[in-house]
Amino acid sequence: MTATFDVASLGRTEARPLHMAIIGGLAGAFLLGKMLPVAMDTVSTVVAPLCADSAGPALDTVEPIASYALPNVPGKRVTIVRVSYGPGGFTRAHRHAGSVTAYITRGEIRSQLAGGPVETFKVGQSFFEPPGATHLVSANASSTEPAELIAVFVADVGAQLTTFIE
Hints:
By secondary structure, the protein is α+β, with helices and mostly antiparallel strands. The chain contains one helix and eleven strands, in the order H-E-E-E-E-E-E-E-E-E-E-E. 20% of the residues are buried.
């Protein structure tokens, strides 16, 4: 079903809201088009520390998905990344500035926080890392199949999300 409007038949006061809505929509689309590159640059800047060399195999990647300021928690930001490990892939020991929740989307991931046991997580399982915890083991449990997880960070705005331990 389609609707048609004969703007010429509308009275001057009836046409004004329609014209204002069209102008407002076009202005919003223009601003969104101008802001999108800035927003993507911000996401890239925020997650750049995650994309640093992990000392793992070349097939290991960290892909930024999104990053948003939390309006109900001033000074905090949520950042989401996809971590992909090739067969036998790993990330060297590190810690994070904020809280991290990881959700396994492919394969199996071995993980160990300082003071805890090495655990293996399968697709559909998740684990939590408190702020500042030392993540000693973060690795693909398989030497033949890839593995992947989605990591959700909640940290201070501007914080370096990942710091590798030398």
